[in-house]
Amino acid sequence: MQHLKLYHSDTLDHNGQTIHVEGPVSADRLRSFQMHTQLDAFRKPKEQFNALVEISELPEGRIIIAHDGETLLGYVTFHYPDEMERWSEAGMKDLLELGAVEVADDYRGLGLGSRMIRIAFEDGQLEAYIIFTTEYYWHWDLKGSGLSVWEYRRMMERLMKTVNMVWYATDDPEICSHPANCLMVRMGDDVPLESREQFDRIRFVRRFMY
Questions:
Q1: Residue 94 DSSP label
Q2: What distance in Å separates the CA atoms of residue 58 and residue 77, rounded to the nearest whole number?
Q3: Using H for helix, E for strand and C for coil, what is the string for 74-85?
Q4: How far apart are CA 105 and CA 147, in angstroms?
Q5: Over the stretch 164-210, which tens digit does the pLDDT of each residue have?
Q6: What residues does the N-acetyltransferase domain cover (predicted)?
Q7: How far is CA 150 from CA 5, 57, 140, 142, in A?
Q8: What is the pLDDT of residues 113-155, one digit of tens each?
Q9: Under a CB-based contact definition with an 8 Å cutoff, are residues 66 and 112 in contact?
């Protein structure tokens, strides 16, 4: 499958500071930045930076970034699902995971998350894909945000709805392990019926229960 990647950029003025949002960015472009020290939700900043570079080198990988000068303030990742998860079992070439969204603490509330996600969908470049994201409450910064688990869930839903992602039911054990966890999906306009049906078979493995 040919993976169309169309670069787009945007800017945001914040207290006299110009924040740039751009992507998808190449590995070479990424290497010119350094991570903000507050980007530590998933790994230590340096380790996460290396993971971002690796994703950007994948044929299907997409990294959207927000930055001030040479400092990364946030990022969004897109890639094929992890081979250890059920979503990879069918080997679907048109199924991409929106894997991570992170914004440095000091820059939250500016709408950077939604700006980065919207740029990823510019010019219909993801219409040939089923895009999904798995939201797990244990990844959420409940302490730092001061939000309850349900308030954080609603915030993540609003964020994903900016590109028309919607809640989908599933029997995936990890998602079903807590009622706040959820699966959100966007079906691209150009996704064929057979891929839609195949994704439904992945969502519900234990169909005899329903």
A1: T
A2: 11
A3: EEEEEECCCCCC
A4: 14
A5: 999 999 999 999 999 999 999 999 999 999 999 999 999 998 754 44
A6: 19-170
A7: 35, 36, 11, 10
A8: 999 999 999 999 999 999 999 999 998 989 888 999 999 999 9
A9: yes
Place of tokens 């020290």: 37
The 3-state DSSP class for residue 17 equals strand
Transcribe 144-179 into DSSP letters. HH---HHHHHHHHHHHHHTTT-EEE----HHHHTST
Asked if 74 and 112 count as a contact pair (C-beta separation under 8 A), the reply is yes
Strand pairing category for 8-14 and 17-23? antiparallel
Q: Where do we find the tokens 């110009």?
A: 18
**Which residues are 68's β-sheet partners?**
71
The first and second tokens of residue 16, run together, are: 């006299």
